[in-house]
Every structure is written in structure tokens, then in C-alpha cells.
């Protein structure tokens, strides 16, 4: 198990980012989905938790086989996808990822069970929680999971005790991510989304210089406690480190885009962004699902032929 705590500061308030993150996730998913790969939204609906109150429950299927390195593609054949299930009680969220067998490809079909089922908080942290997750979330690789807990605060990443309740005595590396100065993979770079050059017309914020986190107002921080577990002998270290690298890149790109697109979402209300989210989900599902319908048919056809 490899745990890291990421801290990503933004030139926004926590209340502003509530709209911005929903807009960014929907638009980013649509942009990155093409030719049968990307994000399919299965469920997105209001959900009430007895501890956290009203929130939003989202379930997605992420198809990304061609984006994996060759050694990972050998471990994860095309008939599998990543299931993401998230509970958003902003400014607190819980997200879990598991590898899942594509529906219709055999008797041992795996899925995330239980519509509206409650998350297991700290699910990668204690043995009893892991057992509960493995009972309720059937996975092709029961020893593989990613668990993310997120908290948002209006500060510059200075709260060292924010996860004391969840992981006070657990060893972890704290990693600051700077949306202005940290490099992103070249294939994702766009000058229009570079906070060093972008300046918002509606807020006047932008063109962030070195050291901006020390002086900029407003400022907020996304605190993310990320736990990756892949308990397979000979591959554990390599896979867990690779997954954290991917997670870090996604966090950096997503937060850069949320700020670079601020003029697109800044005047939106929560109702506006939920409507935008719904429309984008429908468009994205069309891009992803049509291709996968034929892929599943091909797999079943080959299986029938062999028998």
C-alpha cells in the first residue's frame, strides 16, 4: 500500500471552486473521450448521508487500455475497465476505483453493487474496511484499489492536521502541486491553459508568477489523501508508483483547466452547472459507448466460436 497526500492551491475560493470543479470534470471527460475510450457516466444523482448530509453520488466507467504502458496492458486485458464511484459532500468527497470485468463477457461479471450504497470511509486504511469493500465491490483484481479522500479549505495548503481523523498515525508523503510551475506531459500542454500566461477577463486573476501561493488572494487548497493498493508479488511497487504518477498528472491537469476555464463557468449557478453536466455526460456517453457495444459483441462472438 502506498499513501500520499497531495495539496493543490488555486487562485479561487472554496465556494467558487464548487462550480468550477463540476464544470471542469464534465468538459475534461468529454475532451478526453474518443473512439471507445474515455469516461462513461452510469449514475449521477442526489444522495443523502446520515453523517455528511446531502450530496451527489456518481458512478463512472473509465476505458483507457491504449493509454496504459505495455507491461500494464499485459496485466489488464481489454475486457476490463475501471469503475469509479464518488460521493460528493462538498467540501468533502470520497472516491474509489476498482478494476471491473465488462458486462456480458462471462459468468463472473464484476460490478459495483448497490445503487446508492454508502461509501466505506477510510476503506484502504484498515483490514476490516478492506474486507467490507471487497465484499461489496467485486473486482477482477481484489488486491487492487485506489481510494481518495478530498477536503477543500480557504488557505494556502498550511493545514498539516486536516486528515488527522482519517490517517493520523499512517506514514505518507506530502506533495505540493503547483498549477503554475509544475510541468505537465507535453501531449496535454496548451498555452491557453497555462496559468503563467492565462488571465481571466471576468476575475482579473491569472498570469501566476513564481511564489504566487504566498501572496495571492483569494487562495484555496484541495487536500487529497490518495491510497493505492496493489498487493501482487513482483509488481506491487511498480504498479503503485505508476498509479500515483498518473494520479498526480491528472490532478495537475484538471486543476489547471478548472482555472483556465474560469470565464466559462464563473457566472454559472449550481442549477446551471448541473444542467451543463447532464448534457456533457450524454454527449460523452455517445462517444464512448457506441464503440464498446461492438467490442463486447465481438468478445462474445469469439467466446461462442471457441465453444
TrEMBL record:
Name the PANTHER family for this protein.
CYTOPLASMIC PHOSPHATIDYLINOSITOL TRANSFER PROTEIN 1 (PTHR10658:SF55), PHOSPHATIDYLINOSITOL TRANSFER PROTEIN (PTHR10658)
Q: Which residues form the Phosphatidylinositol transfer protein N-terminal domain?
A: 1-96, 137-281
Quote the gene name from the UniProt entry. PITPNC1
InterPro entries, per database record: PI_transfer (IPR001666), PI_transfer_N (IPR055261), START-like_dom_sf (IPR023393)
Q: Name one GO cellular component term.
A: cytoplasm
Which GO molecular function entries does the Swiss-Prot or TrEMBL record give?
Answer: phosphatidylinositol binding; phosphatidylinositol transfer activity
**The protein's name in its UniProt record:** Cytoplasmic phosphatidylinositol transfer protein 1 isoform B
Q: Which organism is it from?
A: Patagioenas fasciata monilis
